[in-house]
Amino acid sequence: MISKIERDTRRFNEIARGHVRKNLRNYISRGELIGRRGKNLVSIPIPQVEIPHFRFGQRKGGGVGQGDGEKGTPIGRGQDDAGMGKAGDQPGQHILEVELTLEELAQILGEELELPKIEPRGKKNITSEKDRYSGIRRTGPESLRHFKRTYKQALKRQLSSGSYNSSAPLIVPIPDDKRYRSWKEVQLPESNAVVIYMMDVSGSMGDEQKDIVRIEAFWIDTWLQSQYRNLETRFIIHDAEAREVDRETFFHTRESGGTIISSAYDLCAEIIARYYPADEWNIYPFHFSDGDNWGGGDTEKCLKILDETLLPSANLFCYGQVESYYGSGEFIHDLEDHFSREHEQVILSEIDGRDGIYDSIKEFLGKGR
């Protein structure tokens, strides 16, 4: 039976998750949520949930502690002179933090954005062996003893022998009654995926633009991790040159200078060819920029790399153009002219500030590839 406190806890968790669903767009646009991420849990503040509490009514007279008192009687702190005289008389706002696992967060994200399940394409599946407890046997270590089966067997024995007393029920297993869990090795399909993030870090990409990319990458990772057993991430930054960096450098580096996007695409293609065979990995390159690119034929070079190298290997190629006061925004139009909106492997998204992150994620992941 479920205890009352377990039932109440379950009910509270349902209410909290409903609140997260209702306000998911706001949570997605706020970067503070990423800072609350632990190894497997994310803490989400929920200020609207009230904490149950006792409330004492006002007494008009009588009762313990009432009256004028006598000389020398100790008194408590007076209400009129408490503190500095600036205490308010209104209840404060209680903020609770509800911990959700990344799997739960991904489930909510998928439900609210109506994201389809991803089907790994081609042969990008490998198998792994895992022990699954699926049977019962008479011998085994005590740590695997099946208590319910053991006592059930003991009850059968006592009933058949006539030693069971219903008025004073007592079941005592003997060694022959003991039952143990048994296991067998099963082959589980295991899909691998890699996400390669590329970001323009030229002078026109400021801290706000990088924060938008950081927030969007967090939610993309959360969803893809729920779809694949193994997910790797690689990070490339570029201005006029490209280089691979770690996550911390990717989101916090300060650069300046011109922009040659093809340098990032070349490096991305090199990483895929060296580490991620297309018949074993699901590959997701994401590129974020403000749309500026050097004019000396580099856009044509980018399109050639996409057509000949990246798209034949990738499940999707996603380009997100972050709005910037200093960027021209031309590159997404060049991609639109070359790839139709119905192209299955190329997803283009214009991210109009933090409020555009929600819709951008849906555009990127909504095809289920």
Total number of β-strand segments? 9
Taking pLDDT < 50 over at least 5 consecutive residues as the criterion, the unreliable ranges are none
Morphology: flat
CATH homologous superfamily classification of the largest domain: von Willebrand factor, type A domain
Rg, alpha carbons:
31 Å
- End-to-end C-alpha gap: 43 Å
Under CATH, the topology of the largest domain is which?
A: Rossmann fold
Please identify the top-level CATH class of the largest domain. Answer: Alpha Beta
Task: Classify the helix fraction into a percent range.
Answer: 25-40%
| Helix-strand category | alpha/beta
Query: How many domain modules?
Result: 3
Order of helices and strands: HHHEEHEHEHEEHHEHEHEH
Description:
35% of the residues lie in helices and 21% in strands. With 369 residues, the protein is of the alpha/beta class. The chain folds into three domains: 4-51 and 95-112, no CATH class; 127-186, no CATH class; 192-365, Rossmann fold, CATH 3.40.50.410. The strands form two sheets. Strands 3, 4, 5, 6, 7, 8 and 9 form a seven-stranded mixed beta sheet that branches. It has a two-stranded antiparallel sheet with strand order 1-2. Helix 10 links the parallel strand 8 and strand 9. The protein starts with a helix and ends with a helix. The mean pLDDT is 77.
Task: Spell out the blueprint of helices and strands.
Layout: H1 4-22, H2 24-29, H3 32-35, E1 41-46, E2 96-101, H4 102-112, E3 125-137, H5 147-161, E4 180-200, H6 207-227, E5 230-238, E6 242-245, H7 247-252, H8 262-275, E7 282-289, H9 298-313, E8 317-322, H10 331-338, E9 346-351, H11 357-365
Parallel strand pairs: 4-5, 4-7, 7-8, 8-9
Antiparallel strand pairs: 1-2, 3-4, 5-6
